[in-house]
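Pilot study result, target chain (232 residues):
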Amino acid sequence: MKHIHKGSWSIACVCLVLGFMLAVQFRTTQDLKSNVSYQRIEEISERLLQTEKERDKLKEELNRMQKGEGTDTSDAELKLRAGLAPVEGPGVIVRLDDSAMTSKAGENPNLYVIHDDDLLRVINELRAAGAEAISVNGQRLIGTSEIRCAGPTLSVNNVRSAAPYEIHAIGDKTTLENALRMRGGVAETLKVWGIQLDISVRDSVYVPAYKGSYKHEFAKPTEDKDEKEAKS
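Predicted structure:
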């Protein structure tokens, strides 16, 4: 009987310990679930708050657009891109002048004079280097601008001017300068014929607005061809 009684106590103790351990494990699991749920709620609440802020911001922007506010800014941006507004910024000023060298016997004297293709080479290098605005002797260059020979002068936007030619270009001044001075580039080529090319790097370069006529007589807005084909 003593052995049976002692065995019962042993079983009771083991059951008590197991019960305590199960209770602790259950409580721990519940606490863990509670913490995870609370963290998740906090995360969702934060996202919801951020979404509400974005929604309110979009509503304000929509209200401004519906009231016509911000139109001036849009017009200013369009004028800037079209070259219809004067601009100022870092860049370079390039001065080109006819050669001071005397042509040798049998040589073509026109090789020592600046031509439209010489000017175009300089301008194309500047554009390729990221120039955002360019003018030649005060004439702003846009998409429809022309540069061509007109007797002993050059015509830019149908305005004639003679050498020296001063090109103002706005952009990354270091990149613009390097594009013109690179080995085998336009500056080195023109130097062969004695064409004077001086590059001045500036923190502030002024480029005037385009003042010529700007109209499309034959070109009319239409639907994008690719979009039209995709719809059909």
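One observation from the pilot: The radius of gyration is 38 Å. A full batch analysis is planned for the follow-on phase.
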